[in-house]
Design goal:
Number of strands: 4
Number of helices: 20
Low-confidence stretches: none
Distance between the termini: 58 Å
Radius of gyration: 21 Å
Order of helices and strands: HHHHEHHHHEEHHHHHEHHHHHHH
Strand order of the largest sheet: 1-4
């Protein structure tokens, strides 16, 4: 058995062992396990069955991670992505009024396009066509979007007729617990304790349980019925002009986020060769894009690679065996549905805020010296949370970019890819 595993994952050539890989997989799982609690809470706001989403999240993450491990031999865990699940819930279903079945259809179509781009040179062409600042801005803007949701769920900010938003009531116990959750996660993260996010969520849930805010319904049980969301995607409903910008938003946010995450993980794992290329990146992208397609069958928003995989790499993970271990642990997690059901929104609010702050870290890579490249990026970052829409924020950023290029006499420097997206966004505002 040991010989077979060694041959399958090339453990010796990667200077690792089964013990190290298991430890790496466990560490990665602990750092990203919060998604099994957060994702059902977010997506159930669409009317989807919470128990079914919980099982779907676990299954999608398990299959995707195992696929990454066996096909690409990369130590990367995958699960439904933060930010895109919020876009799915609050923008596509909540604001635009589409059914969650149609939204799943849009995720499927975006996944197909992502896969096609991953097996051709379209991916490289599109990435190079989009200005670097705008790519960075998408991630930061999505981060602020997630943060806004976390602040709202935790009662830290509330609506105000006079000022639009205002500070919440800090005499409210639930608000205080959401703040406590964020502080616990931050303190543990500063001390580099693995699983800080999941520990923070469980700590707040425990306090709520002890103070009678929630009722104990058990921890372990058989997985809930997944049939309410299984194979419920409406692909035909997603194939209309009105969904074009939605599909594009799913596609490009996932594309840039995945590429950035995988390159970052490859650097940590020393997968970068002498030419500066990540070994096996194409296989990893194929596995990731394929996982996004499979996730829709279980009722999940786009499945993506998790940057938290870096924690598992630091713990010793170097091969796909780490990812396989992550996948197996997600299978076992399906039996924790009673725990997932009692976790209140304010327990996950701190996690959302913390993740949002981490996503803002990419802003340091912005080119602040070039106003033409900088201003559109800042428009994206600011307008995604203020419009409560990833699609609208990106659209306004691209329109600003092209307008500045034209007004400054640099129209010839606008790439075909940027023109393509700009025309799509113009069509959205004019005709839809």
């Amino acid at each position: 058995m040991k010989y077979y595993v060694n041959q399958l994952f090339n453990l010796d050539s990667n200077n690792t062992s089964i013990k190290k890989e298991i430890l790496g997989g466990f560490t990665t799982f602990i750092t990203m396990a919060y998604i099994i609690f957060v994702n059902p809470q977010i997506m159930s706001s669409t009317g989807m069955d919470l128990g079914a989403i919980f099982v779907g999240t676990c299954l999608a993450a398990a299959i995707a991670s195992i696929l990454m491990g066996l096909f690409a031999n990369w130590p990367v865990g995958l699960a439904p992505g933060m930010g895109l699940n919020a876009f799915f819930t609050f923008t596509v279903v909540g604001e635009m009024g589409y059914s969650w079945e149609v939204a799943l259809g849009a995720v499927f179509v975006a996944g197909i396009l992502f896969f096609v781009m991953s097996i051709t040179k379209l991916r490289e062409w599109m990435i190079s066509s989009i200005p670097f600042n705008l790519r960075i801005a998408m991630g930061a803007g999505v981060g602020l979007f997630i943060g806004l949701i976390g602040l709202k769920n935790g009662g830290i900010i509330v609506s105000n007729d006079a000022t639009l938003l205002s500070l919440g009531d800090f005499t409210n116990v639930e608000t205080l617990l959401s703040v406590a959750g964020f502080l616990i996660i931050s303190a543990l993260s500063v001390r580099k304790i693995p699983g800080a996010i999941i520990i923070g969520i469980l700590a707040v849930t425990f306090i709520a349980l002890m103070t009678g805010l929630i009722e104990y319904n058990g921890i372990i049980s058989l997985p809930p019925d997944i049939s309410p969301t299984l194979l419920k995607l409406d692909i035909i409903g997603a194939l209309n002009l009105g969904m074009l910008t939605v599909i594009m938003s799913f596609l490009f946010v996932n594309l840039f986020d995945t590429t950035g995450t995988l390159v970052g993980v490859a650097t940590r794992a020393n997968f970068i060769n002498d030419d500066g290329e990540a070994q096996g990146l194409n296989k990893a992208l194929k596995a990731d894009s394929g996982a996004s397609i499979l996730g829709t069958f279980f009722g999940c928003s786009p499945v993506t690679s998790y940057v938290e995989s870096s924690a598992g790499i630091e713990a010793g993970g170097r091969t796909g065996l780490t990812a396989v271990v992550v996948g197996i642990l997600f299978i076992f997690a399906m039996f924790l549905s009673p725990l997932a059901a009692i976790i209140p929104p304010y327990a996950t609010a701190g996690a959302l805020i913390y993740v949002a702050i981490l996503m803002l870290g990419g802003m340091e890579k912005l080119d602040w010296s070039n106003a033409i490249e900088l201003l559109p990026a800042l428009v994206i970052i600011v307008m995604i949370p203020l419009t409560f829409s990833i699609a609208d924020g990106i659209a306004l950023g691209f329109l600003t970019y092209v307008s500045l290029k034209i007004s400054s006499g640099e129209i010839k420097t606008v790439s075909y890819g940027a023109w393509f997206l700009t025309l799509i966004f113009i069509s959205k505002f004019v005709f839809l």
